[in-house]
């Protein structure tokens, strides 16, 4: 089995019930996925999180629920300690931070565990 860097499918999709939340463990895989997403009109919700973050743990089941409900939206979990470069690129300074991206452009940014606000913004940018 040779390593195929262009194989984006090898990213670890989260094994939670919805199976719709992607997690990235390398900057290269994230960059390849992000660059590819610029060609689509799909809304991406980037969830910047950390294993030690209490509010992030609180938001986990809510993100699971949204991922199951909004099947046309791509939910991506990024651990700020694992992918510091990506966190810096998006100027993440507190967790959780949710960044909504369309065609490679940031359309909204929410800092904190604000589930209602996040859902409103997802609804707003769905189309």
Shape: globular
Q: How is the biggest beta sheet arranged?
A: 6 strands, mixed
Number of domains: 1
Report strand %: 15-25%
With helices defined by DSSP (H or I, 4 residues minimum), what is the helix count?
A: 4
Distance between the termini: 40 Å
Portion of residues in helices? Answer: 25-40%
Q: Overall pLDDT, averaged?
A: 87
* SSE arrangement, N to C: EEHEHEHEEH
Derived structural class = alpha/beta
- Walk across the major sheet and give the strand order: 1-2-4-3-5-6
Low-confidence stretches: 1-18
User: What is the CATH architecture assignment?
Assistant: 3-Layer(aba) Sandwich
State the name of the first-level CATH class: Alpha Beta
CATH homologous superfamily - what is it? Glutaredoxin
Rg over CA atoms: 14 Å
CATH fold node name: Glutaredoxin
Topology:
Blueprint lengths: L11 E2 L7 E3 L3 H11 L5 E7 L4 H16 L4 E6 L4 H6 L7 E6 L2 E7 L3 H11 L2
Parallel strand pairs: 2-4, 3-4
Antiparallel strand pairs: 1-2, 3-5, 5-6
Give an account of the 3D structure.
This protein is α/β, with parallel strands linked by helices and about 130 residues long. The chain has a single domain, classed as Glutaredoxin (3-Layer(aba) Sandwich), CATH 3.40.30. Helices cover about 35% and strands about 25% of the residues. It is built from four helices and six strands. It has helices at about 25-35, 55-70, 85-90, 115-125, and strands spanning about 10-15, 20-25, 45-50, 75-80, 95-100, 105-110. It has a six-stranded mixed β-sheet. A hairpin with a 7-residue loop joins β1 and β2 (about 20-25). It is globular and about 35 Å long. Mean pLDDT is about 85; it is low at about 1-20.
